[in-house]
Structures are given as structure tokens and as C-alpha cells.
Amino acid sequence: MTRRALLGATGLGAVAGGGALVAAAVREAPTAPGGAGAAVPFHGPQQAGILHPRQTHAHLAAFDFGVRTDRGRAAALLLRWSTAAERLTRGEPVGEEIGPPGSRAADTGVALGSGPASLTLTFGFGASFFDRVGLATARPEALAPLPAFPDDRLDPARGDGDLFVQIAADDPLVGLHALRTVQRLAHGEAKTRWVMSGFTTAPVPGRTAPTHRNLMGQLDGTANPSPADAAARDRILVNAPGTPPWLAGGSYVVVRRIRMLLDHWDTLPLEHREQAVGRRAADGSPLTGGAEHTAPDLAANRPDGVPVIAYNAHIRLAAPTGNSGATMLRRGWSYYDGLRPDGTPDAGMLFVAWQSDPRTGFVPVQRRLARGDALGRYLVHEASSLFVVPGSVRPGGYVGQALLEDTPS
Ligand code: HEM
What we know:
By secondary structure, the chain is an alpha+beta fold. The chain is built from eleven helices and eleven strands. It is 23% helix and 19% strand. The strands form three sheets. Strands 7, 8, 9, 10 and 11 form a five-stranded antiparallel beta sheet that branches.
């Protein structure tokens, strides 16, 4: 199908542009970025939003196709989303060309004049996507369901889904506008299955490391692999020989909603909290000394023979050294969704981890953590998803194009 035909494919009427608002939005679109955050190009060596430093606000969302989906309709939706993402990440409104004239303007103008705000949209596919579009034989083996872990308390309604999008921006309005746009463009084709929204601190001027404080008060992200390191990048992005072209430069993302038992945690003595992680709360330095980026000495003992970093400390159990080199880029956000029925805070972390293969990344580490992580006593895993994120999108093309157009039925 041609690009024009795909954009005009079924299900577009309800999201079509053509209204006066869109025309005004196009006229008033800023030519230069607004105050908060430069543009992060949608087109690059991989999808944006994986290696880029974490933005302050995020919406994670999954969608399920309607009953009539097929390969062509999926392609049309992905082209609409990709075309919109390209415009929105430049700080421009979604234009009329995204669909034939119809009842609803393509852009509501909600984020008009806010600038790009470092907006990224990153799209992925769940295991069920491949069944829904008739491409079950093309489903990568690494997309096999994650195993169940002890003490998981997962809500299936808030996990998995045919399609995934991570929307992140340094301006909450820009992020929410992008989410609403993605939802409107899916109208008639795919329904929102779940949305989870999070935030983190704004980057502190002068800090070189992209670490942020989480709701337990810890600096989070210290031991993350550096995207500038080629070997580390190969553990985050899929580049192994034999990778199908649609997946080259892509990744796998694990998304977990992990509630923190904050009312309990916040009452613990500082020493206990630091022992649970193995790092100092104030500056993130390992308990064996130095500064935030000093390597922890896991062999160091106190004079009484007890390890300085406890056997069940989070960083000991999660470190690549004890997990056959398992590496992932942790790039999550905090969430606060008010109070639970029992009056405790519904708050924690939207854990988002990127890796070239979850079977050698997230799975072995979580298996080990689930067996005895000292931090785990104060955490409840409430939702879980795994998505494959295709490689880069070519200008004018769409996410997953090579998969949908070049794979034989
Ligand atoms: C809400 C849940 C979690 C919290 C609050 C948390 C917190 C932390 C903190 C404070 C650190 C030390 C600083 C750093 O390197 O970032 C850390 C390290 C780490 N965490 Fe977590 N974490 C959580 C869940 C997880 C999960 C589910 C995994 C993977 C299955 C994981 C994997 C890691 C890894 C690989 C490291 C680096 C270890 C190292 O090499 O030193 N974490 N985490």
C-alpha cells in the first residue's frame, strides 16, 4: 500500500484533520524550540527514548487491536502514529495530512507554543501483536512471556498488550498532549489497555551523571551501563548477527509497576535503609567508600568478618558479576497515584529496563532478587509487561515497516 493509501485506510474518519483549529495551530507553530528541552529527533540510529537521558515526565501505555485488525490496518495505524510522532517531537502540531477530512481536528492545540520539550515517543509490540497481524512465525523467541517470580502480585489488566508506547517529555503538558494524540489516532483501530504515568526530578545543573532520586530517597541509575560504551550498547540494543532487519538496532523493554511500602520504609533507621541497598542515601556512594561512581568492593569485610555490603544487599544481588554479566539500562520513573483503600500511598516506581535480550538481562537478575533482596521486603510487583521495540524508523516510513511489509505470510 502507498503511504497515502495507508494514511487514508479504514478507521481514520474519526481522527481526521481539516478544522480551523488545526490551520491556526500550523500557522502558530513555533519555529524554534520553546523553553523546556530541545527537540529529540524521532528519526535516528534507533528509536528515540531509549538511550536519551530520562525526561521529567512519562506516560507508558499499551493498546489492544480491535477485532477486525489485519496487517494492512496495523500498518496504517503505525504510519499515523509515526507521522504524528515526527511532528510532535519537533514541537509542531499534528497536521491535516494525517487523515482525510472528517469530524475531529487532528491536533487539539493543547500544547501549542510549548516547544518540543525533549518529547520522545517509543513504540513496541507485545507477543500478542504477532498473532493479531498474522505474523506469529516472525515472533522473536526472546519475546516469550516472562516467568512468574515468587511474591509477584500482578494485575493482568495493567500488563502486556498488543502495542506499547513510551511517551516522555520535560513538560507535563507536552507529554499528555502526545498521549492524547496517540489515543485519538488509534480510535477505531486499537483501544487503550492501560496507562501508567510517572515523573522524576529535573536534571540538577552541574551533575554529570544522569541519576535521579526515587521515592525511597536513593540515587537511582548509578551503575547503569553507559550508552557511549559500544560493548554496553550491544547489551541494550539488538545487533547480534542474524537479527532480522526490522529488529536491528531495536531493543526489548520490561515494564513493571513496583509499589513501595513507603509508610514502613520511611520509618526505618538510615543504617538499615542503606544496608538494604548497599549504598549511602546522601550521595549514592557504596558502603565500602568513595564517591557515587566508585566501584563497590563486594569482598570487603568489617573487622568482625561480616561483609560491609550485606549478602542480601540489592546491589550485590543485582550486579552483573553475580548474574553471568546480565546488563540492562534502567530508565524508570516514580509514580504517585494517591491513596489506596487502606490509606497507604499508592506510590513507587515504573521500572523500565532496556536490553538486547530479556532472557540474559532482566530475567536472571529478577530471579535472584526475588529470592532474597533486602530491598524487596518493601516492594510489591503489581504489573509486568515485555515488548519488543523495532529498530529505527526511516523518514516518511513507520515503526515496524520492514516487519509488516517484507515478511512473507
Ligand atoms: C522499586 C524497585 C527498585 C528500586 C527502588 C531499586 C533501587 C536501586 C538502587 C538505589 C540501586 C543503586 C544505584 C544504581 O546503580 O542505580 C539499584 C541498582 C540496581 N538495580 Fe535496582 N531497584 C529496584 C528494582 C530493580 C529491579 C526490578 C531490577 C532488575 C530485575 C533492578 C536491577 C538493578 C541493577 C542491575 C542495579 C545495579 C547493580 C550494580 O551493578 O551495582 N532493580 N537499584
